[in-house]
Specification:
Blueprint lengths: L26 H10 L11 E7 L5 E9 L9 H10 L4 E7 L9 H16 L3 E8 L5 E3 L7
Parallel strand pairs: 3-4
Antiparallel strand pairs: 1-2, 1-3, 4-5
């Protein structure tokens, strides 16, 4: 009896040179980058969770939309988050999601998820540099700036 299995192929290709990309140094720069790369039509409609992928010099390799949810929440699968992080050989990540309500207070669930991701990231020597919450009106909340990272 013949046993066949799927062939696994993992790849990452840079379309734009990371060496020429933006190097982020503070939450304001990250928030501006996120707002420029967020869908203005849905930022006030439903929650989306994204990760900003960084190299060793905090240069942005890309932004990956991890999940799209409902009005009050979205699910984040850590296995997918770290599959993307590791596949892109990123050494730093910034977490980001929006609150369609405009409320910039980090919820208990937001804090728990951030700590869970941070703990898992340590196993891979990946730094979680911040978690940014965006409001539809252009305001943002930074976990790092508020000392809860």
């Amino acid at each position: 009896m013949e046993h066949r299995v799927n062939e696994i192929q993992i790849s990452y290709r840079e379309k734009l040179s990371t060496l020429k990309s933006l190097s982020v140094t503070n939450s304001n720069e990250v928030a501006n980058l996120l707002f420029q790369n967020w869908d203005n039509k849905t930022i006030g409609l439903h929650e989306t969770f994204k990760i900003v992928l960084l190299n060793q010099s905090n240069k942005v390799k890309g932004i990956y939309p991890l999940s799209h949810g409902g009005i009050t929440g979205t699910l984040v699968d850590l296995r997918i988050l770290f599959a993307i992080t590791l596949k892109t050989l990123s050494v730093g990540i910034i977490l980001a999601h929006n609150h369609p309500s405009g409320q910039l207070k980090a919820s208990y669930q937001d804090k728990q998820l951030t700590q869970k991701i941070k703990k898992a990231a340590q196993l891979f020597d990946v730094k979680v540099l911040d978690h940014i919450i965006l409001a539809p009106d252009g305001r943002y909340y930074s976990f790092a700036d508020n000392g809860i990272l």
